[in-house]
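Chain A, query sequence.
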Amino acid sequence: MRNHHHQEPRSSSSCAACKFLKRRCTSNCIFAPHFRSDEPKKFAKVHKVFGASNVSKILTEVPEEQREDTVNSLAYEAEARLRDPVYGCIGAIALLQRRMVELQVDLALARARLARCTASVTSSLPNSASASIAGMENLGECEFPVACGGLIDGFGSNDNNQSEWSQDGPAGSDFGQFPYMF
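Chain A, predicted structure.
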């Protein structure tokens, strides 16, 4: 007779780990709460990268309330390691950091162009306060792409900001140690 005193209710079928390992799933199986039977690929990937014995040891050493996060981290790292055997999730992090730097440069360029455009529009307005207010109401009619030297055309183009970039990335960055960077 099967013992039904376990932490989380589950179906009578074996968990994905026990199915994969071709063993009987017991009521106190450490894998069962985290590797459901309908997610066989999750355990297969974790097992391929870390091994069932290591995963079991990790889970027994981690407090029970942190096990779900631990399994999610192992699954993410295993997926990343299988996609990129050399860098794993560090490759994904470096890619995101590179994209963040590119977006920061694009934002700085947009702010500089907006400042130039705002300066050219305000310098063309008359000095009187009432005329300035009337001029600001018509600001929406200003052709920003023309007044700003083509705000939309060429935005984000690498040709416009090559002087700000060195071979190792943006000037002053410390991202050279990461793979996939520039």
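The mean pLDDT is 75. The radius of gyration is 29 Å.
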